[in-house]
Amino acid sequence: MIALEPITRENWRAALEVAVQPERLQWVASREPVALMILAKSYVRMDSQVWHPLLIVSDDENVGVVAVGTGGDVAWVHHFLIDERHQGRGHGRSAMRAIGEWLRDEFPDVTRVGLNVVPENTAAFALYRSLGFERVGTTLDRQWITMTWLDDLTGSLIGYDERPRDASRRKSSTNRSCGGEVSVCALFASVSLPRGAQSDTSHASSWADGRAATNRRRAGRMPGHPLEHR
Length: 230
Ligand SMILES: CC(C)(COP(=O)(O)OP(=O)(O)OC[C@H]1O[C@@H](n2cnc3c(N)ncnc32)[C@H](O)[C@@H]1OP(=O)(O)O)[C@@H](O)C(=O)NCCC(=O)NCCS
Hints:
- The two termini are 28 Å apart.
- By secondary structure, this protein is of the alpha+beta class.
- Helix content is 36%, strand content 23%.
- It has helices spanning 12-16, 25-28, 34-44, 91-106, 122-130, 150-154, 167-172, 182-190, 201-218; strands at residues 2-6, 50-58, 61-70, 74-82, 112-117, 134-138, 144-149, 198-199.
């Protein structure tokens, strides 16, 4: 059973003990301990978000750390780490679900969840894909910006609305320039990437394509996004 506990003056030293393999550190933070980065960024409120530093606990054992940034309808998962001794046992998946449930309970405005992942981190990306995350852009330092709906993350969605089956719209939705494509371009425009971030039109379109009808109900803007995540 996974629990998320705020990092406080009682447990911060324990949080610093959460460790990552040296070769994987670059995927999650620019330096160790990862919890120290989390606490520093929480203090300065990086990217103008409210950072929530969290310890991931399983059966009274500290198995990971993560920070969640809030401040609008998109919440951002930062520095997600399962300790090297506890990886590959399902804790990562359970923790992501727990983050989703926590957001649903505590932040009713949140509809989507975003995170950055480096393309080489295939294990993490496989996990995120299975939770509904789709690539929607690329940061200046070549990380993929990915997003999912909170409903997908928590598994609480019953079903999507039927998307209009308009042939011309389907054809133009694959047009990378978005010329003449109103629905997808308008949808993508609603996902405002940060200044300097590159939109990845093909992936954004496919993400948009599958979510078009749902988006009409839940359209919103993405708040300022970290350009340098690590
Ligand atoms: C990525 C990470 C958070 C996943 O947590 P985890 O507890 O190891 O993952 P889980 O055991 O819950 O596995 C979930 C999914 O991840 C993928 N995965 C995990 N380990 C994998 C591996 N060695 N190779 C390929 N895929 C892997 C699989 O898709 C797996 O799903 P499955 O169990 O249905 O096959 C963890 O490995 C980690 O902290 N890595 C180092 C830091 C990092 O990369 N953080 C992410 C930054 S974006």
